[in-house]
Amino acid sequence: MPEPKIQFENVSKNYTRGNMVVPAVAEFNLSIYENEFVVFVGPSGCGKSTLLHMAAGLISPSSGTVLLDGRAITEPGPDRAVVFQQFALFPWKTVYENIKFGLRFKTLDEIEKRNTVEKHIAMMGLNGFENSYPHELSGGMKQRVAIARAYAVHPAVLLLDEPFAALDAQTRTIMQEELVVFGEEERHTVLFITHSVEEAIFLGDRVVVITRRPARIKEVIDLKDSGFMPDRRERSLDEVLSSEQFASLRTKVWGLVRSEISNERGNR
Amino acid sequence: MKVKYASFISIGGFILLWWLISASGMISPRFLPSPGSVIISLYGMIWEPFASVTLQGHIWASIQRFFVAFVVATGIAIPLGAWMGWNEKVNAVVDPVFEVLRFIPPIAWVPFAILWFRLGLKSECFIIAIGIFVPSLVNSRAGIRFVDPVLIQAAKTLGAKGRDILWHVSIPWSLPIIVGGVRIGMGLGWMCLVAAEMISRPTLKGSAGLGAMIEVARVTLASQYIIGGMLVIGVLGFAMDIGANYFEKKLGRWREA
Hints:
The complex is a heterodimer.
Chain A lengths: L3 E14 L2 E14 L3 E5 L6 H9 L6 E6 L2 E2 L7 E4 L11 H6 L9 H14 L15 H14 L4 E5 L7 H17 L3 E6 L2 H7 L2 E5 L6 E6 L14 H5 L2 H24 L1
Chain B lengths: L2 H22 L10 H11 L9 H32 L1 H14 L8 H8 L3 H25 L3 H9 L5 H37 L10 H10 L3 H29 L6
């Protein structure tokens, strides 16, 4: 068994609202291995973003540890770059400057920095937009810049927090396909959060269904072992979506997610 | 009618109304001089000094005072405000005192300004500086304090730490807000300038400044110079605000959309 890249070890997180303690994550255990694409899917507000923020080091667990290469994560850092749902671009900086931002804190000479930025501009199809400002770009383009910015710091793990949730359906499809292509070009360990079952099955090597609050693992579905279209990454999303295997997986995963949502309803 | 002509009509109408009232003879020219006499007096002042100083001399004296006060006030208020916005402890220490002091009108400082600095440039600058200081500090603090938190998170995950975040995220993000505060402060300071100059007991012999000019005109009942001084103050203040507004818009370009 290889060493895990990211490891959630008995992780719990409680928030306090006034006198009330609200558990967001409870006794969460999971290992993510090198070059693995892991997707957390669950009902909205289930605490899956809290898990990602803990891996990012933006919030700390109430108990337990999140580890990167066996070392406890205590603060944010470029080895775990994050792509946020709200893009989080620096609006006063151009596309070029945004992508360069993280390189400022690395020991690279100017030529290496420029080459890195230009490589990622080309990779994300942003040529011709180098000098545009974020407010001049569409949502899809903004998220391309954010992804390029995260890739440019060469993170050990890429953390994506519902990155396509704010995009329109067409743009989302294109971005999902492109993300797969980049994943092939530059193998990465990825933790991807979504509430979309289709997105989870299309992108993930492993899909982790999360329960409603407090977040626990409902079920882990390993798509590599399941024999589900090993070449799906080379196909279009439409093609994958219309396959029979996909339909049965979708029914299975959606059933798991749905039971969590109706559970919540039943308890109210 | 195009909107851009509206301002000409507004100003033209105002002058016309003024002229009609003064020409009707209802009010003595001593209480309301005609627009013509005001323009002639101002024009004449370019060569013939009033209160021992030419028009440009008065203007220059006021601008100098204002400039000195501006540099001192923003030089302290912006960094202090930023520090208060950045560090909650600093804010906790400075804020209670500031919250009380900020509501004291600058003019109320006049007696102490005179006691501390005596009459003259320093005391006048002090009054003006207080006017500029307060809004500059308030906006500087608010700008740094209310930076979009997701931008700070993004910067941290890209490797920025502590001071990097202040310099590369908080300050650029706040700049348009800070300039907005300075702009409000400049308007306030400009009003204080005139008051400060009037209070400094100007005399006929060599008291320069637009406020001093008005005060001397009041004492000598030269009402066309009073209105002339008021007009110049209004026009200069307006011009200054246009400049500051342009600067503010330019810095805040990225806020559009």
